[in-house]
Amino acid sequence: MSDSILKTPEHTVPTAFTRAQLDWLPWLEPLAVDAMTPRHQASLVDAARVKSPYFRLLARDPDALEARTRTDKDIFYNPDGGLPRAERELAAAATSRFNGCLYCASVHARHAATYSKREDDVQRLLDAGVTADLDERWNAIIAASVALTATPSLFGPEHVERLRRAGLDDLAISDVIHAAAFFNWANRLMLSLGEPASV
Amino acid sequence: MSGTDTDVIDALVGITPGSALDAIRARRPEARAHAQATYQALFAPKDPGNVSASERFAVGAFVAGLHGATAVAAAYASGAPAALKEAVDTAVKEAKTHGPYGSYTPGPLSREDTPGPVYRMEASTRRALGPRLAAAFEHAHMLVFHPRDAAPAALQALLDAGWTTTDIVTLSQIVAFLSFQIRVVAGLRTLAGRA
Fold first, then answer.
1. What's the burial of B106, exposed, middle or buried (CB within 10 Å: 0-12/13-18/19+)?
2. Would residue A3 count as lying in a domain?
3. Domain co-membership, A134 together with A103
4. A38, B29, B68, B82 - which has most CB atoms within 10 Å?
């Protein structure tokens, strides 16, 4: 019976934002690996994602999943100019911190720390929240991500100006917008289809 | 929407070929193409399954309305049945608030808990929309404004209203994708100086 709520196995619920690896437990039944058609498998984009219950659950709508993943990869991995990878991850982590997605924040805070080598600053974002005082460039990226994440959006010309003063060109500002906007997509799926668990 | 081949984000931002924003979007060609492909997958799907076009566009209009994104809401409302338009508008008026708010699992983060409304639709609006769409709107409100309050009970309410597991994945993608699309449109309009 696939149309019922899953009972999650016994687990420890994380109660603080962390850069540690977390697990994610689905509340709805992912596709069984041996029930996946070639279309379902292709929608994972990376074949290794067949191990992830999150992606096997989203594979129930394969066209939406595949397009989601290809959008995600270009926003975060495209190396052609714009915002450095570390700061795209920072925008993702700040958005996740503000929306309250512990799982997404853990992954992208880890990436932000790895690519920037600024573990302490990233940890302060997790511990103190989005008003943490880091440096002006990071503060500006976090403030812009948070303003865009509010519903309705509070993102205005003052955020664009502050990012420009911090040295971002328009492509980099567009990358901040896309990274924060994308995590408003990702956070809502992660938060509502299952829950994080400490490993 | 004026057909599903038009790039929706370009149209809603007002991006014209050869403009500065056209050049910026061209530097992220996969993101541009697949944001549009997601729109097509969710609003003009090859295999719609159990989720009708009317339901998809009605949810789209409601979610954009909750964001106060007037032009985006009008675009989605144009794909929803005329008979539902008034009920969608009424639901937006009933449900509109400010987010994100919600509660964390009890612990150190509880000091950040922010109270806010849980949307329960008025009976007359519920009658106009029907139980399936009413449940979808109540869920969409949670996803839009207080996603950290998500819990299995919210999914059970959708199952009880006739949404299957696969339908819930599609519904969740519609709300979550729109949360992205609306912010890209708002952000790029501001960047172009036409907020």
1. exposed
2. no
3. yes
4. B68
